[in-house]
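Hey,
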Amino acid sequence: MDRNSTGRRRNRSWPEDLKREIVAATYEPGASVAGVARRYGVNDNQVFTWRKRFGGQQGETVPAHMVPVVVAEDMAASGRKEASSSAGVVEIDLAGGYRGDDTTVPVLAKGKTDTGRCWVYVRDDRPFGGPAPPAAMFYYSRDRRGEHPQAHLAGYAGLLQADAYGGYGALYLPDRKPGPILEAACWAHARRPFFALADLAANARRKAEGRAASVISPLALEAVRRIDALFEIERAISGQDADRRRAIRQELSAPLVADLERWLTEKRAGLSRGNDLAKAMDYMLKRWPAFTRFLDDGRVCMTNNSAERALRGIALGRKSWLFAGSDRGGQRAASMYSLIVTAKMNDIDPQAWLADVLARIAGHPASRIDELLPWNWRNANPASAVAA
């Protein structure tokens, strides 16, 4: 008989009282969603959905843990303060927030592969000299429905930098509980369509290969020039503290951004709705408050590149491992990517770290488990610990 560690038979249908019991168990001291999910034989993402539904009814402070592992709990604990809400005490992120992105993952199905998704949320405060160490957390899902990021961030309020995927929309609602998430748009995403329409190098390659060259848009060239002027300012202030970054942005970037908005609005009026350049302009103008958020907050970056870099290993890996064998395999892969990418972000060799931690963890006190996190870890052989 298929039973989990509690002795219960694994269920596909869960009574309401049992759902509440499972949710309550995740809020016990030292508990994690992953551990409770394994104990009851239920999917991690399902437990997050139940937490969103029942979490505020527990009659106690609900911690805003992003994800069910120690790395994620540290991510959620760093740089926060308590704020009042009708549900009790809510943790509001005062650090640089999270950067989110997702990519496709082929998943084995009967006679074919389905297209699953791997989601990542990155904390990286290094651009503004923040004290929190960088970390990344990955999730797997069978599809790209908006309920997944909503479950991942169910207990979070603060900044989120991501693309314009519609599934994030519910996170930005002003009446969201435990509080709204502030959207910060990615200027790299906005720049790409303009760059594609003004790519002189690509046109030269097409001509050399005997293919017809595409038309270079003068407006696209001008848009790239204006956006690149903003990136030039950002390169000069990378690593400076948030107040200094904000002051320089107000002095140098804000006038350029205001002028860019006027220029985009003026040029957009002369283009048809189906024009590729018009679509690129609309992408920015419809989200202008999110694109300009970096001007008033030195913690916000102009791009979501740190999340995209975190996903790079998956894009490369798809050529080697081809597909995940099952949903459970996708979930295990997400867990491993969380560990490996976080180690790399902290300039730690993942292989050396994992080998040492796995050898020591059985005898390591649970109350000092944070000593084994990548940013706290000290290897017996320092020469092998630095990431290549």
